[in-house]
Amino acid sequence: MDTEDDFVLISHSDCQPPSYLSEIRAVVAELADDLWPVNKKIHDNPELGYEEFIAHDALTSFMRSRPGWKVTPSAYGMKTAWVAVWDSGRKGPVVSFNAEMDCLPGIGHACGHNLIASASVSGALATASLLRNHSLPGKVVLLGTPAEEGGGGKIRLLERGAYRNIDLNLISHPGIVADTSLMRTSAFSAFRVEFFGVEAHAAANPWLGINALDALITSYNALSVLRQQTMPGDVIQGNISDGGVRPNIIHAHAAGNFVIRSNSQPRLRELRKKVEACFRAGSLATGAKLKITQEGSYMDHVPNRVLGASYTAYWNAMADDAAGPPWDGRIPEDQDVDEIRGRTMASTDQGDVSYAMPSLSAGFAIPAGPEEQGPHNPEFAEAAGTRTAFDVSLKVGVALAGVAVDVFTKEGMLEEVKRAWRKDVGK
């Protein structure tokens, strides 16, 4: 047993296989044939953020068919958000699951959100089944969360009270590399930059103009110089969306879209100051007026190690089961190693959830295609639609349910989860 500050982490090597594993697996196995067509329908009908009408209808219809669940479609003023609740009727922990639904423009479900939904749906249903079978107090909440791909659906849900009075949140994400219980994502900020100058004829009287494009190019070059002094977790990306109308004029307007990422919110704030200084330099050098419009931001995801330890115990118990399908490997029980494996420069609105409450975002590997392309590639979209990938997502659902059941049944665990969370986010 390892003690860290004011909370306790239990070494898995000292534990017996999870008590409820076989029961959870049986519930999920019974769901598989009914849930597969829902998964397939979502995958084969990809929909962009806030337009997930087919996915919304398929998932809410499926949840309505399950006894004891109260389903609210088009929840919280969002047409494609939904919520399903199973309530024991007795006060206890409230555990939530997120089901993502949206696709990527042009390449379908190349982020595997159909699998995320299947894992969360199966996990939530299995959790409720065990609460019912063992007469445990508490509540299970399953949220249909639109528009993860840049739309910030979970942020809107947070703002509108969807996560109020919920103790913790569980989700997962597919990839092609290592399985992990401690996915840590990057903080992200997107913004539009515009420069406003004065138009003039470039040959007849250029001295009368103020070149907005020069201001943008100067800023872009300054960003390139800045990269030499940035930290390993920093990313600066951008494109020029408006470089002027004609080549023979001094350009009165220029614009670009920019994205910055860092390992944490504090570091992102520091990077943002440096990036904005580059744009002010372009304005100062040319006399063009600068306008920066914020277009979106995601916080970094802070994984909860107490929840992660529970997930790892269930996952590795299944990995050790010779009767199951072949597994590529176990999740490291050394959580420092696991968190390094779980680090990604990608960003997600689940990060914002992790600052509002304890969060687990588990990463899971699905079989890659011939080119071994990961998420956001066409080949990954194809891989995400296979029955094999779906079967892996159900294993994830089992492990997520295991975490939830541990919270409901292990005395003091929820308090440990919350203490760890307060320490991690500085509350």
TrEMBL record:
Keywords on record: Hydrolase
Q: Which organism is it from?
A: Colletotrichum musicola
- A Pfam family of this chain: Peptidase_M20
Q: What is this protein called?
A: Peptidase M20 domain-containing protein 2
The superkingdom listed in its UniProt entry is: Eukaryota
CDD domains for the chain:
M20_ACY1L2-like
Q: Name one GO molecular function term.
A: dipeptidase activity
Q: Does the keyword Hydrolase apply?
A: yes
Q: Does the keyword Nucleotide-binding apply?
A: no
Q: Which family does it belong to?
A: Belongs to the peptidase M20A family.
